[in-house]
Amino acid sequence: MASPKGRPSLLLLPAPPNPADRLALNAAYRPPLTSAITKLQNKQAGATLVIVVAAPFLLPGASSGESTVSWADAQHLVAGLYSIISVICAKHDIATEVNAGPGSVDARVILVDHEVGSQHGQAKPFIRHNGTIVTDLETFAATHHSWDRIFHVDNEQGYELLSSFQRLAEGRKTLRQDQLVVIEGGVTLNLQAAQAERTAPQTKTVPIVCLGGTFDHLHPGHKLLLTAAVFLLKVPRQQSSKPCRFIVGITGDELLKQKKYAEFVQSWDLRATHVLKFLNSLLQVSDDGDPETEEPKTIAEDGRMTGIFRNGTIEVECVMIQDAFGPTTRQQEMDVLVVSGETRAGGNAVNTERQKLGWHPLEIFEVDVLDAEEISDTPTKTEDYSTKISSTAIRRKKAESRI
User: Where in this protein does the record put region Disordered (predicted)?
Assistant: First the structure.
């Protein structure tokens, strides 16, 4: 359940500081994130908070003319935000995994392209294709509109972003004054010069991206991994084109029987469903309905669950993993493997195995590790919340609550 009214809430965050290091991100985003998350916590119901960071994320392609995203910068920003979210939620004892029930806040970070001071026309009910999963603010405002509350920060950039969003949402949804909630803004740098001199490295997008994991009690670490992976997808501009594919290997139930607190491990079907529901927020853009309140279109088969997004231009295949390599050694046709620090060795082993088969190795991208240590001005060691956001920690808490 997204909120007491069945709808998610939206937090509009202006462009990040430059450089976007941990201290700068904490200063800019900790106050509004804390305010929105704590205001949404409801002991009788779970809430969903969609966090939109609006900045000029799209880069013109060097040769193809299609837009690209700097993968390193984008995933680093998302990692920083989920790190802050993890610290806030651990400190306030708020669960932030998907479908965690009463008292939880399922926070989801989305990057939306927006240039400060840019002039937009009124939003139209159509999708603006750019070859990436990142939409511009106009498309987002036109196709996502069933919000419970809309939080915006109390500074110049925050009001500019709110004004742009309101103007672009006109004709699709009337935003009531009681929906708008102003919250404390953080301290950030003046971004005008930084935005004018964007020299972020481009990242080549590809038709097929793969990753693997357990995805039990889908938490911020999982959310980061999935978000970083879909930044690499080359999305077809035409509905008639062959769809790009995101292959998510999800560990089968049999392989998890020896996990700690195994009785609280979610079933494969539920874990796959949660992956697709989370990705619905990032991938789905539709003229009809609203991605935040509608279920993704899925096709379920034995050991496989496929989600169809953006009018068939993106397919997400959740595949059951029964061995160490999963689909990477059963499907030759794939381009990229996304790993975390914990699964780096597994990525190298995959390429060794593929080479034995005479197949091309996969290009490996590694996401940042969530830094869930509390930031403090004092020189003494601060509390590390990393152990509180793992799947094992979530299962342990559920086990202890039964005692």
Answer: 378-403
Which residues lie below 8 Å from residue 51, measured CB to CB, with a gap of 6+? 11, 13, 33, 36, 81, 85, 107, 108, 109, 110
Q: Report the alpha-carbon distance of residue 322 to residue 340 in Å, rounded.
A: 20
Rounded Cα distance between 3 and 105, Å, is 9
pLDDT tens-digit readout, 333-375: 999 999 988 888 889 999 999 999 999 999 999 999 888 777 6
Q: What is the pLDDT of residues 108-140, one digit of tens each?
A: 999 999 998 665 555 454 567 789 999 999 999
Beta-sheet pairing, 208-213 with 336-339? parallel
Is residue 383 in some structural domain?
no
How many domains is the chain built from? 1
Distance from C-alpha of 58 to C-alpha of 202, rounded to nearest angstrom: 9
pTM of the prediction?
A: 0.91
Q: Is residue 32 part of a domain?
A: yes
- Helices first, then strands: H and E counts in the chain: 9, 14
Contact 105, 89 (CB under 8 A): yes
Q: Provide the β-strand partners of residue 251.
A: 321
Peptide bond into 60 cis (omega under 30): no
| Domain extent at residue 269 | 9-366
By C-alpha distance, which of 142, 141, 143, 165 is closest to 152?
Answer: 165
**String of b and e for 234-269 (b: at least 16 CB within 10 Å)?**
bbbeeeeeebbbbbbbbbbeeebeebebeebbbebe
pLDDT (tens digit per residue) in 245-273: 999 999 999 988 888 888 889 999 999 99
What is the percentage of the chain residues whose pLDDT exceeds 70? 86
Q: What is the CATH number of the domain that holds 206?
A: 3.40.50.620
Q: In this structure, is residue 152 part of a structural domain?
A: yes
